[in-house]
Amino acid sequence: MGKLDGRVVLITGAARGQGEQEARLFAAEGAKVVLTDVLDEAGEALAKELGDATARYFPLDVGEEDGWDEAVAFTKRVFGKLDGLVNNAGIAPRSDLVNTSLAQYEEVVRVNQTGAFLGMRAAAPELAAAGGGTIVNTASYVALSGLPLCAAYAATKGAIVAMTRVAALELAGQGIRVNALCPGGVDTAMINPGGRASREEMDAYFGTLVPLGRVGRPEEMARVALFLSCDDSSYITGQPVVVDGGWLAVGQVRT
Question: DSSP code of 194?
């Protein structure tokens, strides 16, 4: 028996990184998964690998309102319902505050913050119709600590934590749990573009920052997303769950 047997989950940003690992793990635990992304080739390849009976790909720019309606309709058409949402898609351009253009700031808000809002708004009625469900919003430990060169990113992740709490309060009566996954440094394209640094190099760098002495793995984030999406977390809602190797506990930010 899988932890997600019989459930249908939509995952954004699922073509690579954390989203890919979430899609793989959720499918292995019995879920039907709809993978969305703007990286169509990689997303389609992953869905094909997992198999049509288990996974389908739908192209989605999370910041576009109409796209969400279409993605949810596609999910219902293919798999009959929607039981869970993982708002994983996000971007993190690095820029100091005074040199961040308004256009750059607004694009980060559009993808990270507006994308999560639109996803929750589109999914909630379908989750309620299915008898309840789960939403996992991907925030960041940065929402709780701050980090230089990440003003726009930190602002959106802080907003996601706040929206998560509000949504948890509003949707609890419909059997919908809403939590925020707050990763620390994770070895994905977001912080290691193109895999330019080896895992050993990433571990060595984060070993100077993080008490557990290494960078996070995307599959570790996927396991926490699974926990928040299954009955193991049945009495948890409205919470930012920090998964950062102890970075936040250090009490100061070093970069």
Answer: G
Tokens linked to 114: 């507006």
> Is 178 in contact with 135 (CB distance < 8 Å)?
yes
Q: How many CB atoms lie within 10 A of CB 98?
A: 6
Per-residue pLDDT of 14-53, as tens digits, reads 999 999 999 999 999 999 999 999 999 999 999 999 999 9
Helix (H, G, I), strand (E, B) or coil at 106: helix
Sheet containing 133-138: which strands, arranged edge to edge?
55-59, 32-37, 8-11, 84-87, 133-138, 176-183, 240-243
**Contact criterion met (CB below 8 Å) for 191 and 142:** no
Residues 193-240 have pLDDT tens digits of 888 889 999 989 988 999 999 999 999 999 999 999 999 999 999 999
Bridge partners (DSSP) listed for residue 176: 133
Which among 133, 154, 136, 135 has a CA at the least distance from the CA of 145?
154
Q: Is 153 a catalytic residue?
A: yes
Question: Is the distance from CB of 253 to CB of 146 less than 8 angstroms?
Answer: yes
Q: Which of 57, 105, 141, 153 is catalytic?
A: 153
Sequence-ordered alpha helix ranges (H) in the chain: 17-28, 40-50, 65-79, 102-108, 115-129, 142-145, 151-171, 199-206, 218-229
